[in-house]
């Protein structure tokens, strides 16, 4: 991840409380449908200053069911104040998600099972940071880190309390990429801090609460659960690419492929041309339109540029044909059988986006999960794909 990851640290404030600023981190979901902020639950609790449970049980915030009010919360991101559109609280951990207006340049984040001993977290809008090491084995999702360095401590002894750091996202850095590991939630005393580990159970809970895929778990799936991803390839793309190298553009097989690709990039004959928005309205998926339009246009610009290599032509043909086939044969039937929107989105991710990405990314660095999703919406706008219930 080449971007300056610290630029996406935010400050979190709650109205009506004594001045107390916390931290969080803004990210873009894998499906590109929302921007969300990860923070600690106690950082957005409007009853925090009145709470006496914490003096009795330091883990009370994990179990707390106090109602959270998103209208009382303010986010400072790049010196701009934002009011969240919604807030979601974990029922078993001290973690909360804030939904905000879509932030186009916010990063996608991936999880990984690779081990590391050095960790970093940013706070104060990314201007300050902690370095951690020696994580303990998680106990019930809680993990302790040793504070290796507070870069603003001026070599003074480590303090017991640090202000404004709760809710900071803790990363591990592997080969120049930052992977989220935990949410900082407590001052453990002395040299330690406590954090909620972003394990599978917590990630699943947060995704169910927010109705979206929170992290790109491709690395995690490849390392741990390859059987969970349906395969689209069976060598099909490799065979196409190898065969294309043996053909010239004047060969009939190559011409047929280009004709098929051109058809996918054109409006489908025999169907009314009503546009992407009306197609989604027709399928009662207006919620997708903003992101669908952005991603579809992004892919359309790539197509209209017309500067394809032979490899691009093969890969685009393969992706568009696979998306069209899987949607028509599997996704469409689930829609007609009454599956809810969350189930449909998960099915699209599991049967189209992830398997295609895993297959195609071996041959083209420019293909991302975002582009594959854009192809899906592009085909929708061209009336190849229908969302009718």
TrEMBL record:
InterPro entries: ABC-3C_CTD9. Residues 275-387 form the ABC-three component systems C-terminal domain. It holds the Pfam family CTD9. This is ABC-three component systems C-terminal domain-containing protein. It comes from Desulfotalea psychrophila (strain LSv54 / DSM 12343).
């Amino acid at each position: 991840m080449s971007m300056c990851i610290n630029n996406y640290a935010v400050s979190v404030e709650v109205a009506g409380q004594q001045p107390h600023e916390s931290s969080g981190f803004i990210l873009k979901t894998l499906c590109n449908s929302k921007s969300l902020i990860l923070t600690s639950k106690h950082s957005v609790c409007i009853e925090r200053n009145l709470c006496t449970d914490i003096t009795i049980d330091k883990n009370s915030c994990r179990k707390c069911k106090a109602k959270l009010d998103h209208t009382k919360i303010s986010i400072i991101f790049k010196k701009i104040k934002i009011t969240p559109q919604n807030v979601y609280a974990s029922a078993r951990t001290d973690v909360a998600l804030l939904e905000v207006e879509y932030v186009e340049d916010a990063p996608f984040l991936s999880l990984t099972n690779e081990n590391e001993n050095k960790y970093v977290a940013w706070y104060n809008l990314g201007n300050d940071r902690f370095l951690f090491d020696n994580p303990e084995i998680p106990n019930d999702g809680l993990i302790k880190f040793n504070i290796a360095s507070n870069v603003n401590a001026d070599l003074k002894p480590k303090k017991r309390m640090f202000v404004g750091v709760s809710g900071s996202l803790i990363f591990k850095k592997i080969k120049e990429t930052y992977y989220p590991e935990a949410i900082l939630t407590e001052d453990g005393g002395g040299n330690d801090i406590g954090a909620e580990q972003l394990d599978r159970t917590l990630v699943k809970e947060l995704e169910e609460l927010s109705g979206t895929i929170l992290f790109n778990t491709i690395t995690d799936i490849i390392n741990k659960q390859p059987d969970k991803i349906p395969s689209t390839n069976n060598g099909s793309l490799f065979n196409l690419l190898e065969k294309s190298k043996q053909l010239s553009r004047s060969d009939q097989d190559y011409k047929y492929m280009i004709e098929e690709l051109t058809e996918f990039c054109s409006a489908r004959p025999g169907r009314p041309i009503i546009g992407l928005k009306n197609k989604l309205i027709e399928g009662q998926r207006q919620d997708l339109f903003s992101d669908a339009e952005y991603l579809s246009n992004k892919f359309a610009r790539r197509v209209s540029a017309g500067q394809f290599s032979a490899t691009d032509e093969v890969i685009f043909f393969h992706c568009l044909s696979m998306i069209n086939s899987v949607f028509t044969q599997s996704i469409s039937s689930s829609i007609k059988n009454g599956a809810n929107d969350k189930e449909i989105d998960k099915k699209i991710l599991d049967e189209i986006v992830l398997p295609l990405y895993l297959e195609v990314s071996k041959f083209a660095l420019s293909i991302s999960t975002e582009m594959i999703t854009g192809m899906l919406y592009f085909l929708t706008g061209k009336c190849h794909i229908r969302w009718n219930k």
